[in-house]
Amino acid sequence: MDHYDIIVIGSGPAGQKAAIAAAKLGKRAAVVERKHMMGGVCINTGTIPSKTLREAVLYLTGLNQRELYGQSYRLKTDITVADLTARTMHVVGKEIDVIQSQLTRNGVATLIGSATFTGPHEIAIEDATGDLKHVSADHFVIAVGTRPARPSSVDFDGETVVDSDQILELDRVPGSMVVVGAGVIGIEYASMFAALGTKVTVIEQRPAMLDFCDREIIEALQYQLRERGVTFRFGEHVRTVETHPSGTLTILESGKQIPADTVLYSAGRQGVSDELAVEAAGLTADNRGRLKVDEHFRTEVGHIYAVGDIIGFPALAATSMEQGRRAAYHAFGEPVGHTSTDLQPIGIYAIPEISFVGRTEDQLTTDNIPFEVGVARYRELARGAIMGDSYGLLKLLVHAEDRTLLGVHAFGSNAAELVHIGQTVMGLGGTVDYLVDAVFNYPTLAEGYKVAALDASNKMRAIARVRAQGRSLDLDVSAPVA
Ligand SMILES: Cc1cc2nc3c(=O)[nH]c(=O)nc-3n(C[C@H](O)[C@H](O)[C@H](O)COP(=O)(O)OP(=O)(O)OC[C@H]3O[C@@H](n4cnc5c(N)ncnc54)[C@H](O)[C@@H]3O)c2cc1C
Ligand SMILES: NC(=O)c1ccc[n+]([C@@H]2O[C@H](COP(=O)([O-])OP(=O)(O)OC[C@H]3O[C@@H](n4cnc5c(N)ncnc54)[C@H](O)[C@@H]3O)[C@@H](O)[C@H]2O)c1
């Protein structure tokens, strides 16, 4: 039986980085992955295809150019699925190549098949022909990710009622679509299909969507999506979805029935620990298939680590990669620097996109932390006008006393890139004054940082003036009359 220093199960962002980090430490590392899934959900069905599809939609519909060239501007009319998937397949293929080559040149063995634990130090790998191979290791990293949640009350047929894995295989752009769940996946796909001209209805059981984001920005996003014909039904629970020869019916608990050509069911994901027989290694998963870990990503069985989506929140590609690296370093006693989970950025690739780092106005208010808001609107930035983005905004939340940055919230073009400037300032403990005094390239969206910082500091100065004037009046009143 082959023996490794470390075996990583799953080749998504978490698994890749764990395996490469171990190899860089001179360890004998292997990654187990199923045929046709190299790169994980991230490359094959999740992040990369969805973000590439979004680029294709923006390019072909010409949506981002319409402020400049008029509302009827389109690069192509009658956009087909083939137009969209050509770009997706190209990018996915390239990314798989990059991962395979990185693993090979770092000497990481790839073991193709499905792994199941047969003991705490041993797994069996079943390949596509049913052959079994047993391998053992000193350490394991479980990075098996998630699959879409599929309730039995929904009749998934892969054609008209689909989950987020299957949506990439639609054979046409539907005329109408119901999106169940206004989570990140639901809103990203609702944005793309609405941009393609599909009549989208979003159904969400909670009273609002994406409630971890800035409220003003979510209102702005909802406005933009409504402008593109999206209907929102909040506080509505989907009971069942039926398929009929002429289309689908989504039945709500409230009794409403919503017809549509296609239903995208994007109401959460489920960890795939069940397929791994984790009990054989002495582990137990929760009711959503997730594994519990400590701050070093160790499970309750000391030599087995778990990273990425299988451990739950925040379940992002970027955090998964970092968890993988940290787990491998910890396994081999390599020191790792401190990272603050408070400074992990969130990027939501809706159309328009949203990104933020740090806290929201609501959180600061709940915690009684006094803050000032500085806003830069893209329509007042020369770069915003050049790009044809008049709706974007950058918002800084600044501590009213020590003037540090507490949160950065961006909406509009390049929001997910722009947020990293604020993240860096926050990470280095910088204040709003750094941004006031800094000189930014012009014309850029980054200049928005200076504009927003000036806005916040002007408001803070106005408050200081009121206080100062109050004091001088007090002095005048108490002064002895000559
Ligand atoms: C539609 C969609 C869009 C997304 N967009 C973004 C985004 O824009 N930004 C972002 O940061 N995140 C995004 N995410 C989330 C991101 O894709 C995940 O956080 C990330 O892929 C998790 O990485 P992972 O390493 O945990 O595992 P995954 O990428 O889920 O990969 C796990 C791998 O493990 C393999 N595996 C499972 N069980 C076994 C087994 N028993 N044996 C062998 N192999 C096994 C699977 O085949 C799979 O390849 C998106 C997700 C979805 C679904
Ligand atoms: N840009 C990004 O970073 C990005 C993009 C896509 C996905 N992801 C990750 O993928 C994961 C899964 O995303 P998701 O959107 O599927 O899950 P989610 O759990 O975030 O959202 C699911 C939504 O569906 C709603 N819902 C559940 N059952 C319902 C029902 N019967 N009727 C109506 N509404 C219902 C829930 O209230 C919830 O708001 C997330 O962890 C997310 O972080 C990240």
TrEMBL record:
FAD/NAD(P)-binding domain sequence ranges: 4-324
Task: Give the InterPro entries listed for this entry.
Answer: Class-I_Pyr_Nuc-Dis_Oxidored, FAD/NAD-bd_sf, FAD/NAD-binding_dom, FAD/NAD-linked_Rdtase_dimer_sf, Pyr_nuc-diS_OxRdtase, Pyr_nucl-diS_OxRdtase_dimer
What are the EC numbers? 1.6.1.1
Binding annotation for NAD(+): 181-188, 204, 268
Where is this gene product found?
Answer: Cytoplasm
Using the UniProt record, give the first listed, main subcellular location.
Answer: cytoplasm
Q: Binding of FAD: at which residues?
A: 51, 309
GO terms for biological process?
2-oxoglutarate metabolic process
Record-level Gene Ontology MF annotations: dihydrolipoyl dehydrogenase (NADH) activity; flavin adenine dinucleotide binding; NAD(P)+ transhydrogenase (Si-specific) activity
Recorded hits in Pfam families, A to Z, give: Pyr_redox_2, Pyr_redox_dim
Q: Which cellular component, as a GO term, is one annotated location?
A: cytosol
SUPFAM superfamilies (UniProt xref):
FAD/NAD(P)-binding domain (SSF51905), FAD/NAD-linked reductases, dimerisation (C-terminal) domain (SSF55424)
Keywords annotated in UniProt: Cytoplasm, FAD, Flavoprotein, NAD, NADP, Nucleotide-binding, Oxidoreductase
What functional role does this protein have?
Answer: Conversion of NADPH, generated by peripheral catabolic pathways, to NADH, which can enter the respiratory chain for energy generation.
**UniProt similarity note:** Belongs to the class-I pyridine nucleotide-disulfide oxidoreductase family.
Instruction: Spell out the protein name for this chain.
Output: NAD(P)(+) transhydrogenase (Si-specific)
Q: Which organism is it from?
A: Gordonia oryzae
